[in-house]
Amino acid sequence: WQARDHGLTMTPAFWNKLIDGFDVEGMAKRLESVGAGHYQISLGQNSGYYLSPNAAYDAITKANPSKCSRRDLIADFYEALHKRDIKLMVYLPSGAPDKDESAMKALEWKKGPYPNKEFQLKWERVIAEWSQRWGRKVAGWWFDGCYYPNTMYRSTSAPNFTSFAAAARAGNPDSCLAFNPGVIYRFMGMSPEDDYTAGEIDKPEM
Prior knowledge:
This protein is an alpha/beta fold.
């Protein structure tokens, strides 16, 4: 969802209005009505706006006002889901928000087959802060866009898949993880850290 697609201009104030207006009870009731056991929600993607505060992200990007919401929607949503025995999972890209040039520069992100060591260390700080705050409220993570695993994540020293996973499990050592390499028409794990396959396909008949 992009604000511009609806003739809207996204700002931190408008973003907070949207997040503040999210009805966690109403959504949880709808999920319960269809028998959902798990629900995965996006923390944010390429816009650079995120639906939970993160001091590490703000310190790195120096965005003022912050593009992270004031409300911790994950913590609030957990409460509504937990009493209905629905587990909460979160989605996050493995790269920087590529529609936010200032954030990409601050995060030291280069798009393409680069090691991106400086970026990875910063991104792990951001992920670990969220994970430590939520603890066992978050049952799993789905990391998108791991397109260059050999270049970025399969080194023997950190940052790598092991340190990436450790950041995500900082608050919940039992959290399940999947790293998504993109559209690949066979089941495959990206690393020994995977607990399930990301499974992105656009032709389910194949």
